[in-house]
Amino acid sequence: MTVFGIVVAAGSGERFGRPKATIELAGRPLWKWAVDSLLSGGCGDVAVVGEVPGGISGGVRRRDSVAAGMAVAPDGATHVLVHDAARPLATAELVGRVIERLAVGDVDAVVPGIPVRDTLKSVSGETVIRTVDRTDLVSVQTPQGFKVGSLRRGHAFDDDDATDDAALVERSGGMVVFVTGEGHNLKVTYPGDLAVMEALLS
Ligand code: CTP
Ligand code: MG
Fold first, then answer.
1. What is the pLDDT of residues 83-140, one digit of tens each?
2. Phi/psi class of residue 118: alpha, beta or left (left: φ > 0; alpha: ψ in -120 to 50)?
3. Could you report the per-residue pLDDT of 131-148, keeping only the tens digit for each?
4. How many domains does the structure of the chain reveal?
5. Among all ligands shown, which has an atom nearest to the Cα of 14?
6. Domain with 33 in it: what CATH number?
7. For residue 162, how far is its CA from the centre of ligand 1 (angstroms)?
8. Could you tell me the pTM of the whole model?
């Protein structure tokens, strides 16, 4: 098993107010946190997609940035882990857990997920339509792991609504499973999220 890592660090950071990958958390840029956890968790080689030192150009959609990373995957790579630069706090242990589950060999993709804690409501404007049963719901993170062939088949699907790569694999008929994610593995999405992460680290 040879695992290639892709850190997606492009995108405009619309909700944050500017692109996020080069923002520093505890003196280290977000993209570097993501690279370091992939390397220490078991990826042999890591490519960064985005406007960072040594990075390759990304695309308009997240899936285009992932495809740019796949284009530089070494020939010998059997598996790939895709990780958001915006998730600096994923641990090497989580990376290892995803790789270990992939290594069993029976699935196309592995995603980290944690059970949804809050009560969920379906709404229309300000009106609550109903309460959604959360029993079967997990909230999904990165790094997400794939067999190289399964991710390529997923990417052959034209699906603009997919918010992650596992969704493309699901839609192409692939088997996707989840492993336990990490509560602190938050994504920098809004400006206030950085302060939460600084607090978690201190
Ligand atoms: N990303 C990317 N290429 C894109 C869009 C997103 O590489 N075209 C990456 C981001 O750098 C981030 C991860 O995908 O690490 C998750 O995306 P998100 O948090 O949504 O970042 P942005 O798309 O930049 O932010 P927004 O959706 O608020 O514009
Ligand atoms: Mg986005």
1. 999 999 999 999 999 999 999 999 999 999 999 999 999 999 999 999 999 999 999 9
2. beta
3. 999 999 999 999 999 999
4. 1
5. 1
6. 3.90.550.10
7. 13
8. 0.96
**1, two tokens:** 């098993």
Which residues on neighbouring strands pair with residue 49, listed in sequence order?
8, 56
Q: Which two tokens stand for residue 27?
A: 């003196």
- Please answer whether residues 37 and 90 qualify as being in contact, where contact means their C-beta atoms are separated by less than 8 angstroms: yes
Using the mean position of ligand 2's atoms as its centre, give its distance from the Cα of residue 16 in Å. Answer: 10
- Residue with the smallest CA separation from ligand 1 atom 19 is 189
What domain range is 69 assigned to? 3-201
Structure tokens at 112: 């980290």
Candidates 77, 1, 82, 96; CA nearest to 35 is 82
Q: Are 48 and 35 in contact (CB under 8 A)?
A: yes
How far lies 42's CA from each of 3, 95, 141, in Å?
7, 7, 18
C-alpha to C-alpha distance for 110 and 116, rounded to whole angstroms? 18
Atom of ligand 1 nearest to the CA of 84: 15
For residue 9, the ligand 1 atom closest to its alpha carbon is 11
Atom of ligand 1 nearest to the CA of 86: 15
Structure-block tokens of residue 67: 């495809």
**CA 11 to centroid of ligand 2, rounded, Å:** 6
List alpha helices for 19-116, DSSP H: 30-41, 62-70, 92-103
